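Something for you to look into today, if you have time. What I am after is a single protein written out in full by you. I want to see for myself how the chain folds. Could you add the entry underneath, on a fresh line?
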Amino acid sequence: MLALLCVVSVILYVVALHAPPLVQPLELVVSMAILFYASHPLGHLVVARLYGVRVDYFFLGRSRFRKLVPAARYLPVVGTKLEPRSFARLDSQRRDAVFASGVMVSCAAITAEFLAALRSDLLLQSKLAAALLLVVALATEVAFSTKVGDLRRRKAAPDLPSGAVGASKK
């Protein structure tokens, strides 16, 4: 399902290239937002699998950002449930990589889409809207991931092999 959302994001980007001027910025921003949202748990999945950790399942949870931004309580997020024993066998650096991979992949994905938009024939206002979304997304990750996100969870329990990354199941 998450991979399908990434495909939808690419399709929206291509449609935005040919969209009417009033719709184009919105289509581009929606495309980038979907890519940001869907690629985060896939980042955890890919890195965990590279290190031999099985992913048990994905789950829909509540954003931990609700602790800092009350409006975020309405934002559902997708978490990644890792198999605890294989995750516990990883050394500290590899655990760090699994926790950080969601942020890294989602930020890299929308940065790549933004760079593609810059090189395209999209309207200036579309490129500015994409730039604004990119800046907000990167600032949000820098400001919040170390306070309530995956990086905070890793720092809070460096020796405990938590198997859930990306969301709170509550």
Observations:
- The first strand starts at residue 55 and ends at 62.
